[in-house]
Known about the structure:
The protein contains 13 helices and 16 strands. With 501 residues, the chain is α/β, with parallel strands linked by helices. Strands 1, 2, 4, 5, 8, 9, 10, 11 and 12 form a nine-stranded mixed sheet that branches. The protein has a five-stranded mixed sheet with strand order 3-13-14-15-16. The chain has a two-stranded antiparallel sheet with strand order 6-7. Strand 6 (161-165) and strand 7 (171-175) form a beta hairpin. The longest helix is centred in the middle third of the chain and has 31 residues, at 274-304. The protein starts with 15 loop residues before the first strand and ends with a helix. Keywords: Calcium, Hydrolase, Metal-binding, Signal.
Amino acid sequence: MQYSFGFCQTKKTKPNVLIIYTDDHRYTGVHALGGMNVRTPNIDTLAKEGVVFTNAFLMGAFTGATCVASRAMLLTGTNVFELQDSGFTIPKDNKTIGETFQNVGYNTHIIGKWHQDSESLKRSFTTGDKIMGKGVYLEDHFRMPYYDWDKAGAFKKQDAYLLVYDDQGEIIKKSISKEAKRGPTGTENNGPHTSEVFATEAAKYFKNYNSEKPFLMYLAFHAPHDPRQAPQAYKDMYDVKDIQLTPSYMSQHPFDNGHMFLRDEKLAPWPRTPEVAKQQLADYYAIITHLDAQIGKVIAALKASGQYENTLIVFSGDSGLAVGNHGLMGKQNIYDEDGIHVPLIFSGNLIKNKGDRYDAYAYIHDIFPTISQFTNVPIPSSVSGKSLLPILNNEVNNVRDYTYHAYRQFQRAYRKDDYKLIEYVRANDVSKTEGNFKVGSKVTQLFNIKTDPWETQDLSFFPEHKSRLNQMRKEMKEKATVLGDNKESIDGEKFDFWDFY
Length: 501
């Protein structure tokens, strides 16, 4: 069967699918995409041998752990306002990409990070290896708790283990001591890095795969999520004095955005001096380059297995990351590079129009329906994302004419044409430690993202932009209604952005 323009299928069997999902990996964290001084030769090759969406975004999140919402949207093809429990729980009514492909005869396999409930994990995959993120976490890439695949979906805490080197340098399993402390205390001398573990398992899967059924692999790396650890050889690639700060570098964010003091923002001291920001960037680039090397090993193993010719490779990050941009460190915001702009690449032998780049708007939750349409797998009715295949087939220029973004009850953004509006409010919040309180700032920002992609010049108060600002505010409110952006519609939300706007 032959697909027009964008894709071609070379075998009678359905294509295999490899989804590579990285963690806190902003768009400019790939050299071929952002041109920054980070080395990513293997991901660059995926871009060269595939197609790139230059305007792909996370829609937002209602939890500081934005990767939870991001992964739920990827797995279900639904938008942020349709998630249950901020994305921690995937209800049975939301068919995941894994169970959807299982139902048409695919073997589905997961390796790596899982942030959702155990029941949805069990029903989504036929098999799995080295599952992480299920309740035991030491904040250390060299001391990561893993689980073997559990068909029953129990994943009990006592079954988690570490991978360490024995006296002969062999990797062995080790139980987790009750006294084990959280924090990045491990090194490459203790055990393998998470990226190495996941890449090894993927390579092993391809080497041993002998089923006549096609496969869908969900390879969910934890890197480059902090702690920003990498083997010394990769750290040595980035001398702090050679690191270039981004155009949006600031020593401190100019106002309270509603969520300034969570864990991510405490990873570096205030103010974010140039020295601090450069060190953070050096560490970020080092863990990305190490990750890139592991992705190279995965692709090499896929080719050696003979499966590459009939495999669609999808590469994406789950969120942006500030690392000094606008004086921030985390991703709890809706600036582009700092929080929501992600790399999105469709690659492999099945891609016909290699090297093409599309500036059409895309969301992470568009990936599921795109893969489904490519493989001729029926898209479940629960999916609200839009397939990007018509764009890749050059049938249309876009499937969206705007994007809309939300972060908790504090921030909203609306993007259309060359402009992006961000609105902030001072709103109510509640926590176990502080009880009820009010936080945030009522601020408006307007950016020309075509001429100012790093969002450095606020145009909102310039008279010549008054008409545009008013029109975008009006449209943003209209889109909020269409999308169901209100606390009554959003599962578990206590506060409504629009009550404070």
